[in-house]
Amino acid sequence: MPFLHRDGCDLYYEVTGHGPPIVFAHGLGGNHLSWWQQVPHFRDRYTCVTFAHRGFAPSTEASDGPGPAAFVDDLAALIAHLDLADVRLVAQSMGGWTCLDYALRHPERVRALVMAATVGSVAHQEIDHLLTAAGATQAALFARGIHPAAGERMARERPALHYLYTEISDLSIGLDKERLRRDLYALRTTPAHAVAALRMPVLCISGEEDVVIPTGAVALLAEIIPGAMMVRVPESGHSVYFERPDVFNRLADDFFQNA
């Protein structure tokens, strides 16, 4: 099993396929397995790199580790370790913190950026209000045994898929995800003008039924980034890539070809 050994962390990753590189960064409910419907679609034309963020199994982190504050450095180290140039980044939810900040630090290395169901680290008052308002809905779903990142529609219409999502999410035994969520939100300090300086092509994707990162919040991010494309996917929640993979793969594929 390939691991990148870093100070206080072993970062698990997989490389599949051949061609220009795509790096996939998963969300709070995932790990490298989250992309099981994307890698087979892209691997014949792209080199697909999937990894598990530090602390998300099978990656590890020391108990006194920095957590999400080190996500960007981890991604930079992985890209350097694999000697990747001209990368395409696909970020889902939490992965948006990782990929947006990497794109801000290393814009010359990023060919294109997909921000799916995420606002990343941008500081924005209106986004704050939308995220706060979404909290009560998420708590109500958890109380009913529904993972908010999978969504009520997935649980109702595709219970096996919802089960798979929760099983992947539960693999990171012992990881305090509520604390990690608070740490992520505390890292939302990037000023809007810094995000507005991005010049690589950016595609923002949002499920219209998303109760974790509401579609209005993603739209606000897209408005900040010059030339960013915004796509709202109907009948889909927070995890479009998982729930509507055909739609997600087509959107990302067309975007990368045009980029």
Describe what you observe in this structure.
The protein is of the alpha/beta class. The protein has a single domain, classed as Alpha/Beta hydrolase fold, catalytic domain (Rossmann fold), CATH 3.40.50.1820. Helix content is 40%, strand content 19%. It is built from 11 helices and 9 strands. Strands 1, 2, 3, 4, 5, 6, 7, 8 and 9 form a 9-stranded mixed sheet that branches. Helix 2 crosses helix 3 and helix 4 packs antiparallel against helix 9. The two termini are 33 Å apart. The mean pLDDT is 97.
- Averaged pLDDT: 97
Strand content bin: 15-25%
What is the C-level CATH assignment? Answer: Alpha Beta
Are there runs of 5+ residues with pLDDT below 50, and where?
A: none
Radius of gyration: 17 Å
How many beta-strand segments? Answer: 9
Order of helices and strands: EEEHEEHEHEHHHHHEHEHH
Q: Compute the number of helices.
A: 11
Describe the protein's topology.
Layout: E1 3-6, E2 9-17, E3 21-25, H1 39-42, E4 47-51, E5 60-61, H2 71-81, E6 87-92, H3 95-105, E7 110-116, H4 125-143, H5 152-157, H6 159-169, H7 177-186, H8 192-195, E8 202-207, H9 215-224, E9 229-233, H10 240-243, H11 245-258
Parallel strand pairs: 3-4, 3-6, 6-7, 7-8, 8-9
Antiparallel strand pairs: 1-2, 2-4, 2-5
Helix pairs in contact: 2-3, 4-9
Summarize the structure.
With 259 residues, this protein is of the alpha/beta class. It has eleven helices and nine strands. Strands 1, 2, 3, 4, 5, 6, 7, 8 and 9 form a nine-stranded mixed sheet that branches.
